[in-house]
Amino acid sequence: MKTKFQETLSRANEVIFRYPLILVMALLASAGMVCMIENNNEPGLFIVYSKFTISACLGISLMFALKMLSQRIGRELALQLSGTAFLVGFYCFLPDTRNDFTEVYRYIIAITALLTHLLVSFIPFIRKDKELSFWQYNKNLFVNIFLTAIFTGVLTGGVELAILAIDKLFDFHFNDKVYTYTFFSLAIFGSSFIFLLFNDKGLPSLEKEGAYPIVLKFFTQFILIPLLIIYVIILYVYACKILIHWELPRGWVSYLILAYSIVGILALLLVYPLKEENSKSWVRIFSKAFYYTIVPLIALLFTAIFTRILEYGYTEPRYFVLLLAIWLLNIVIYFIFNKKGSIKFIPVSLFMFGAFALIFPYLNAFSVAKRSQKNELLDLLDKQQLLDKGKIDFQQKIADTICIEIADKFKFLAERKQTGFLSAFLHSKDQAELIENIKNGNFYGIRYTIQDKFINSMPSKNNSGETERIILTPEEQSIAIGGYQYLLHFSRYDQEPQKINEDQFKIVDELSEKSSLKLILNSKETIELGPQIMKLFEKNKGKQGIVKTPDTSVEADLGRYHIKLIFKNIIREKFSYSQQAAIYYEGTYLLVKLK
How far apart are CA 547 and CA 475, in angstroms? Predict the structure, then answer.
């Protein structure tokens, strides 16, 4: 027992001294995640810790990749400094406010994370042509990741249960956050440490030849490949259905084809050493036939993608799907016409396509999406004849579906800071409001503001049925303060906590999901205002369009205060195909007085 303990301690020391920077990144990421949770109600600190945590998480895979490269070519210090400089630059690149953290940055983070992991898969073999060593290296990484997931899951579950047992049996009354902190600490730092333990000495251990794992062989040959065969049969039957009925493919078929192709390529990589074994001839047949089975599906894939793009234009997700389709076409052409093609081409080419999508001037995902949606908005306004001397005429009668589409495009472009382009369509008063909303990151507010400006929009029938839309707006636009002492303004999508003296008020909006809108005082006392809001709609049951009503306010006692929430307008939309209604508002004023 003592010998085993000393051996384990020795292995742990080796990991610490061999991979110090990777463990530092994992430790910083764990600490950052804990600080994010602790400061969730402090917007300024929360965004700082979010940026810090994201950068540190990227640093785990990036520093591991650079460590593998340094074990091949040396220059460890220079590589570590370059990696650190990249992470510092990435931290500074991320926005400083939560509202500016739009989906654009989520795409950038996701693609960057993918690129750092792809880098791990091939970076030590840039100057090395030994195919089997490359396969062994990635196979061992794959197995180690799988084992790490199992070990981390068991360890995390065991520790969480131990804390729970101590809490319940000995009445310690731990704060619930202890479980969350423990989970993230073990899931990030713990998993990184376990993974590094499995990697032993790094590159020399990972690329060393070894027997093909029996479990991996069984999983690939008897589970993964048969499932892929069933999957491709389903896709071919669907393709035949399209040809027989001569109809356009459904949009989601793109994701199914990509899933089949990517999982199929993974299966081929897993059985790579087996394809030349005579005893496994059916594996060899699958390896040769797979790329040919994709060819008809690629035609279907491009048809589905361009159907969506031609109808709605480019967005980042459509761009990425198209880029994956082009990458897949390259892979198929490469392996069909190059019988001795290297499997390194797969991760290297995917890395190059991903880097192209992020940073290539003019043709990157974000530039293409912005240009496309600008053109789509111009075409839509022109077709609907909504422009009067270059400005949108909001008085015209249009279908509410068109109104929503225009508002969605305004939101899309506002998130991408196209202030000048959008302002050109609006009059001076509306321009000031737009600029202020973009500055404050109130992008959903822009969407609903533009939608509400079309005061003569008409419900229209579509393939899914009719839309019921009611807008409750007060008869008087002025707000009577009365005996209230304080006034705060909340926007629907800018609900950061606001303070009166030392007291903090926060709105939690779940109107669409649970008919709930909560007002929270100092993260302790809560009042539910949802039922009162629902009564406002019940009083106007059966009405549609803009409905002027004497009162759009709700009020209640909260702690030592009496509060009154006044809505500038509040909207409910319901589609016939859905049982749930979407409820939202542009902004609301909170009046507060001491009881």
Answer: 9
E strands present in 173-299: none
Give which of 62, 205, 26, 77 is closest to 133, Cα–Cα.
205
Query: CB of 552 within 8 A of CB of 467?
Result: no
Bridge partners, residue 575, by sequence: 467
Residue 399 contacts residue 458 (beta carbons within 8 Å)? yes
Distance between CA atoms of residues 88 and 336, nearest Å? 43
Phi, psi of 265 (to 5 degrees): -65, -40
Cα angle vertex 115, ends 303, 413, to 5°?
60
Element housing 7 (H / E): helix 2-18
d(CA 24, CA 18): 12
Closest-CA residue to 305 (of 343, 353, 257, 273):
257
**pLDDT tens digits, residue range 282-309?**
667 777 788 999 999 999 899 889 988 9
Using DSSP bridges, classify how beta strands 467-474 and 545-549 pair: parallel, antiparallel or unpaired. Answer: parallel
Task: Compute the distance between CA of residue 547 and CA of residue 544 in angstroms, rounded to an integer.
Answer: 7
Q: Which residue(s) pair with 470 in the sheet?
A: 545, 572
Residue with tokens 């969506």: 308
Tens digits of residue pLDDT in 248-289: 666 678 888 898 899 889 888 888 887 656 545 566 777 778
What pTM was computed for the model? Answer: 0.80
